[in-house]
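Below is how a single chain appears once it has passed through the pipeline. First comes the sequence as given, then the structure the pipeline wrote out for it. We keep one example in the README because the format questions we get most often are answered faster by looking than by reading.
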Amino acid sequence: MNPTHFIWNVHPTVISIGPFLINTIYLRIALSALLIGQLLYYFININKLEKSRKDNLSLYIILNFLIIITFQFIIANPLKFHPEVRWYGLLFALAFILCYWVLHYVYVREAKPLKQLEVLTIYLITGTVLGARLGHCLFYEGAYYLANPVEILFIWNGGLASHGAGIGVTLSVILFAYRYGKSELVWLMDRVSLVVPIAATCVRLGNFFNSEIIGRPADVAWAVVFARLNDATPRHPSQLYEAIAYILIFIFLFITYKSFKTEIPKGRITGYFLTFLFSARFLIEFFKERQVPFEQSMSVDMGQLLSLPFIAFGIFMLWWSFRKKTLNDEL
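Resulting structure:
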């Protein structure tokens, strides 16, 4: 090991309190009482409630029921409560905040209703978390989680996949567009694509703080030793490679967006985003260690294979965007 190599030894936890033991019996009783009260109120006033309020109350009842089932069959009693604030969690939250700020700017600039942005944000957060979790469980450890499906819910044990998040975000945008105007789908895809590289940057920085998704051994001047892994091998800081690539892609996309005085051609931002970001992901994978055992026998890893459809769709969107603009110019 070269003494000039950077040694990374930051603990992934910022703040840790406890642990505490909590008797969940009383919590279960309180949740059950709340559910009974909600059901009684719902059925007594079913003919008086407005449709929107009825739908919201139905959602609350379903969520409360799922929470009760979770406590009854999944969470042990007493519950060991050990609250922690981790760098990864802070950066994950920061990703949503920064994305919201940029989208807020876009909505104001284009005179779009901000109320819809608030709803879109909920859709995106839900799609990101569910997609990332299911993506990891199915793409990387499918056999294990199909045999132990309940553990898919144990998100605190780690395991999120960016390609799954991409699919989840896409589905959430489609669902949102279907509800609030089908003609806005490509417009929404472009604006969401504009901010996704910010989130990808924050996630990779979180991986760096966690000393995970590490690079292959390297002897370059900027190699990093991940001391918390009890590994003295200098490695490529592949997490930082991706973070730098993604923030540069965001800067390019934002400059491209701002460069159009009128509306940017539809599909242009989505095409650039998918093509550049997943091409960067494909190339940087060559500097990473394989994440799961079954990848050891593969010439390219799962992350690279999953990137190919995104790249292909990005190229198609660029072709469609430029062709559409050319046809419009001819007309």
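Residues 302-330 form the longest helix (29 residues).

See the next section for the split statistics.
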